[in-house]
Amino acid sequence: MTARIIALYALCDLPPTEGVGANPGSRLDFTVNEFAELSEGQPVLLRELGWTSVPSTGGAATLALYLTEDRVLDNVRNVVLPDDGETSNDEHPWHDMAATLTEQGFSTTAGELRDLPYKIMLTPRLRARLSASKA
Amino acid sequence: MVALAPCAFVTDGDYVHKTGNDATGHGWWININCASGTRATVKIWLEEYYSDGSWRVKGSGSKSPVYSGSGSANRANARATCQSSAVVSWRSRIDVDLIGQVDSPEQAVTAVRELPCAVN
Known about the structure:
The complex is a heterodimer of chains A (about 140) and B (about 120).
Chain A: E1 5-13, E2 28-38, E3 44-55, H1 59-66, H2 69-79, H3 94-103, H4 110-114, E4 118-122, H5 124-134
Chain B: E1 9-14, E2 17-19, E3 22-31, E4 39-49, E5 55-67, E6 76-81, E7 84-98, E8 108-109, E9 113-118
Antiparallel strand pairs in B: 1-3, 2-3, 3-6, 4-5, 4-7, 7-8, 7-9
């Protein structure tokens, strides 16, 4: 395989599921997909993650206060942490990510991945929702 | 006497996912208008769906005291070891109890995810 891994990124979205069911504004379900960006060709999907947010009280009004760009970015960082993050200082599960890429035919190591840029990207749909929440 | 309304916070839980041979999930909380410095006990249960329509707890965990916010120090974690790679549905249930304060009894239930991990 000739394509090189040039960066890693997490793409966060907020699919339009809010309001499904009897309690509109009762929850938000974010998706976070993590990719390896290649020098050529399609990105490689590493992990499909996400989180759910549920207000204790106040419904949609509480969620509107919750929904800021900084908070979303913090939560993306939280979701992509290693599962042994409680005992590790690593911000990403480098060894697992390298293993996933190796299984897909890429020659890489945890150390090489650690040296790559890691970006967090928000979809236009999520950015629009953040703007609407701020207004 | 006027009862004080509970303050508002948001319970967050990541989707149950597979790490190694475990299903795992985390729970944390975000302070919206509770007093600064409020801490909580965060409990989390991993639930697997059964064909009889029930959700059964397969792992649990808790952490206390937990400050509002993200980061590995502020997450309660639950794990369950997979016993087969059959694809089944998973979700987590998270309860945040504010320490020394009245809060609402609701629990957060995360979105359902299909994982190649069954715990029988």
